[in-house]
Design a protein that fits this description.
The radius of gyration is 15 Å and the shape is globular. It contains four helices and eight strands. By secondary structure, the chain is of the alpha+beta class. The longest helix has 12 residues. The termini are far apart. The chain has a five-stranded mixed beta sheet. The protein has a three-stranded antiparallel beta sheet with strand order 6-7-8.
């Protein structure tokens, strides 16, 4: 998976995370980043994939969504790709129907396919409400 670089604010190691009671399973909790409370979600669990163990390779990608920051736990952060519009193909129509168009394109790199995410579209209304509440709390 890949995210547009303009949405990413920073990439950090996995910090201490405070769990949130009664949150969906993919909401790992909240963290303190230089005095700012940031909600953390596990993209594997959000995408209904098997949970993986946090390792030294695991990172948290901090993204900004509608003036709110969100942390995404990922298995690893490999590299920054400079893709042109010509290198990004359209997402299969199946994804629009099944995932709310959260996959905005497909690129090839080193003979691998990379799904490019619109992170805001991966979240549902309830997710956004919880994230915005953390900003106010």
């Amino acid at each position: 998976y890949a995210l547009p670089l303009r949405k990413i604010k920073e990439v950090i190691g996995v910090p201490e995370i405070t769990p949130i009671p009664f949150a969906p399973p993919y909401f790992m909790g909240i963290m303190n980043l230089r005095g700012q409370v940031i909600s953390i979600i596990d993209l594997r669990l959000k995408f209904q994939m098997p949970k993986s163990q946090v390792t030294n390779e695991s990172t948290v990608i901090i993204v900004e969504l509608e003036n709110v920051f969100l942390g995404l736990i990922v298995d690893t952060t490999n590299k920054v790709l400079n893709l042109t519009d010509q290198e990004i193909g359209e997402a299969p129509r199946f994804f629009e129907r099944e995932t709310g168009a959260c996959i905005i394109g497909v690129a090839k790199s080193d003979a691998k396919l990379i799904l490019i995410l619109d992170i805001l579209k991966t979240l549902d209304v309830n997710d956004i409400v919880v994230i915005k509440q953390q900003k106010v709390a």
